Amino acid sequence: MSEDEKTPAREVITEYAQSHFRYFRTTEGTVYAQRLGHPVARPIRSQGTTGSHRQELMVDLFNDGVGVFNGTSLKEALDLIEALALSQDVQPTHIRVAPGFDGATWLDLGRDDGLSVRIHPNGWEIKVPDPREVCWRRTQLTGELPMPARDTEGKGIDQLLRLTNFATADTESLALAWLIGCLGPSVPVPAPFLTGPQGAGKSTAGRMLVRIIEGMTGDLRRAPKDEENLITAVAAGWVTALDNLSHLAPDLSDLMCCIVTGAESIKRALFSDGDVVRSRYRRPLLLTGIDVGVIRPDLAERLLPLRLERPRVRRTEAELWREFEAALPVILGSVLDLAVKVRAAEADIPSDLRMADFAHLCAQFDTATSLRALPAYRGSLDELNDDVIEGDLLAQTVLKHAAGLDPGTETRMTSSEWLHLLSGLYSGDDCRPLPKGWPTTGKVLSDRLKRLQPTLAARGVLVDWGRTKAGRYIEMTRRPALPTHEQQSL
Question: Which UniProt keywords apply (predicted)?
Answer without folding.
Answer: ATP-binding, Nucleotide-binding
